[in-house]
């Protein structure tokens, strides 16, 4: 494997690790938010309306998932390109 291909693979690895870490952290944040929401819902009376996550939180989670998946896709594409050098 030539040096340019090795460097490109190193960049792909860095991008993939960043994307995977973002997906992992987003999943943890989502689980914590749902656990907090569940705890708040259990304290409420039955006749009160259900609690839901606010729109900004859901949008932030979706955006983080999109960015994380885009990072993984970019890493895959970059790695594939490096094999053709």
Automatic annotation (TrEMBL):
Keywords: Membrane, Transmembrane, Transmembrane helix
Protein name as catalogued: Lipoprotein
TM region(s), chain numbering: 6-26, 64-82
Lineage top rank: taxon: Bacteria
Keyword Membrane (UniProt): yes
Biological source species: Pseudomonas quebecensis
């Amino acid at each position: 494997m030539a040096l340019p291909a090795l460097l490109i693979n190193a960049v792909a690895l860095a991008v993939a690790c960043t994307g995977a870490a973002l997906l992992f952290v987003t999943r943890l944040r989502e689980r914590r938010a749902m656990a907090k929401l569940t705890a708040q819902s259990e304290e409420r009376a039955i006749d009160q309306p259900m609690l839901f996550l606010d729109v900004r939180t859901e949008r932030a989670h979706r955006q983080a998932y999109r960015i994380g998946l885009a990072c993984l896709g970019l890493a895959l594409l970059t790695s594939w390109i490096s094999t053709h050098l």
